[in-house]
Write a structure and sequence with these properties.
By secondary structure, this protein is α/β, with parallel strands linked by helices. The protein has two domains: 112 residues, Rossmann fold; 224 residues, P-loop containing nucleotide triphosphate hydrolases (Rossmann fold, 3-Layer(aba) Sandwich), CATH 3.40.50. It is 34% helix and 22% strand. Strands 9-10-8-11-7-12-13-14 form an eight-stranded mixed sheet, sandwiched between helices. Strands 2-1-3-4-6-5 form a six-stranded mixed sheet, with helices on both faces. The radius of gyration is 23 Å and the shape is globular. The two termini are 27 Å apart.
């Protein structure tokens, strides 16, 4: 099978060099890359029949004649922030000055399986767990915001909340809980929970297990259902990411979920109590793998004392990312996903 052809055309050579480097790093020799900065050569190149997986061209180079070529995904690199379909439905417009990671994702997401040489539906699933040593750190808002942000970047997301009191529905349009039929499906067969409740999964940008509005004890369920559910979802390979929101605590079943995850975001704040709690869990749980366990400081304020940064923790477990405190209350998943800190967080995974 021939390598897929990717053509990127723009007159800004510095811009092209940065984008070319990103494609080479991500794809290596799995694709043939044609970078064009000369308008005359561009015209000459497309004067002959071309078969390409991706063609991205500066809006000043674009002509309707490109639609007569055999191009799977055709993009206009726009100087203005007007993302989406053009009047010609087969052509998409993307803002050329997005960050390189985001631009690469926008240009390649439809072609991901072919570019990676994988069969349809066979992509690996990454489990991201969010965990905090203390309640009130905004862990759930980060979890929901990250799920929505990754979904907007064309990733297939499943969000699983494992808290005793599940209030994440606050950020969703549908605020109803898991139905009685859903609970019965969970009890049916502990070994196949995901398959049994698959039809009860909802989607609002990202997919999610409906909130449990009563405790597990009240439903005669054990915490183990979450581990079985997550494993089943991963085995299905229907998702790029499973985001697991884990309640604060040190019980063995919570630790098992942390061990199951590929990445764990340890959510803290800068105040003295949060720092004290973080010191305690760092002493009692093994978070030495700095590739897996990443400290995220939420509700950061640069004008206030930062107890975490002034403690010994910063040397041993440095803060990977700061999420600035929002100036106004945020009430929807879309608003959370628009936070710059959450956008930056999402770039760690794409």
């Amino acid at each position: 099978m021939s390598k897929p052809l990717i053509v990127i055309a723009d007159m800004d050579t510095a811009y092209l060099a940065e984008l070319e480097n990103k494609f080479l790093v991500e794809l290596g020799d799995r694709a043939e890359l044609e970078i064009i900065s000369d308008p005359e050569y561009f015209e000459q190149f497309f004067s002959n029949p071309v078969t390409a997986e991706i063609v991205a061209v500066n809006e000043n180079l674009y002509t309707n004649a490109l639609q007569r070529q055999d191009i799977q995904n055709l993009f206009i690199l726009s100087e203005h922030q007007e993302q989406g379909r053009t009047e010609e439905l087969s052509v998409s417009r993307v803002y050329k000055y997005y960050g390189i990671k985001e631009l690469y994702n926008e240009l390649t997401y439809k072609s991901q399986e072919r570019l990676e040489g994988k069969e349809s539906g066979k992509r690996e699933t990454t489990i991201i767990a969010l965990y905090s040593a203390i309640g009130g750190t905004g862990k759930t808002s980060l979890s929901v915001g990250l799920a929505e942000c990754l979904a907007k970047k064309h990733k297939r997301i499943l969000y699983v909340n494992t808290e005793a009191i599940q209030a994440f529905f606050f950020y969703l349009r549908d605020k109803s809980g898991m139905s009685n039929e859903g609970y019965r499906a969970i009890k049916e067969d502990a070994g196949h929970i995901y398959q049994n409740i698959r039809s009860f999964i909802r989607k609002e940008g990202f997919s999610y297990i409906p909130p449990f509005l009563s405790t597990l004890d009240a439903r005669n369920l054990s915490y183990d259902i979450y581990l079985n559910l997550i494993r089943g979802a991963r085995e299905s390979k229907e998702y790029d990411f499973i985001i697991v929101d884990i309640e604060a605590g040190y019980e063995a079943n919570r630790v098992q979920l942390l061990q199951e995850a590929d990445k764990v975001l340890l959510i803290t704040m800068q105040d003295a109590i949060s720092t004290c709690k973080m010191e305690y869990i760092m002493q009692n749980l093994d978070f030495r793998d700095h590739e897996k366990y990443l400290v995220i400081m939420n509700r950061y304020r640069g004008d206030e004392m930062n107890c975490y940064m002034q403690s010994e923790l910063q040397a041993q477990f440095p803060v990977k990312e700061k999420i600035y405190e929002a100036e106004t209350p945020l009430g929807t998943a879309e608003q959370l996903a628009a936070l710059e800190g959450i956008k930056k967080l999402s770039y760690m995974f794409i």
